[in-house]
Amino acid sequence: MGHWLQRNIIEPGKLPLLLALTAFVLTFLVTRVITRLIRAGKGPFGNVKAGGVHIHHVVPGVVLTIVGGFGAVASDRHGFGTAVCAVLFGVGAGLVLDEFALILHLDDVYWTEEGRKSVEIVALTAALVGLVLAGFSPFGVNDMSQQELHDRGGVISTVAVNFLFALAVLSKGKARMAIFSVIVPLVGLIGLVRLARPGSPWARRFYRRRPKARARATLRAYRHDRRWAGPRRRFQDLVGGKPDPQALPPH
After folding, report:
1. Cα–Cα distances in Å, from 4 out to 9, 78, 109, 201?
2. For FRET with 233, which of 15, 18, 113, 244 sits at 20 to 30 Å CA-CA?
3. Cross-strand pairs, 53
4. Number of folded domains in the chain?
5. Residue 52 lies in a domain
6. Does the keyword Protein biosynthesis apply (predicted)?
7. Per residue in 28-58, pLDDT tens?
């Protein structure tokens, strides 16, 4: 494990990325725990206010992201300062994306259905960074054997081809599948074979004059959403908390 960490993380200069990702995930999890305690009226925590204004944690998140980002640019690549800036950036990004839905809607939708977008964007961001971190990078690694060069070259070529597949899958309206297909080829192949989601660029281009294909795509999307809506909602509730019940419109 130590040798792998040195060869694939530290030597290629990926340690700051690992620190940033770790800080990002931990910050999100800790923040969600604290906000759920505040919501339940438990623990010593409470909302931060200044002059009667509720200060959302996206505010210090933006400050930490700016400080960490500019600090990393100005620091030496392998210095201690870069590691500190990477942690600051990860913490800031975790705070910002935890309230991504608030930024998107310009409204306090943290505990609403719209607020689920924050959990989704955090999960997608962590997955993307994790895929980059786990990928084999030959740049910055010294004294590689011919076998290592061959293995890494093969991985890079495979990832490049998979990336093209991912673009096609993304055009079919399958964002999550497209992300993981960059590393897992089978996911991309499945996404290419399956019908596109209604309204996606692929569907608008290739199903425009094929009413049967449009109908089958709509039916498949309906069945898929009905099948996975429950498990996805339960996972989101577990991670981010259950949204407040929506008030019924007046009659």
Report:
1. 8, 18, 43, 41
2. 18
3. 50
4. 1
5. yes
6. no
7. 999 999 999 988 888 888 888 887 788 899 9
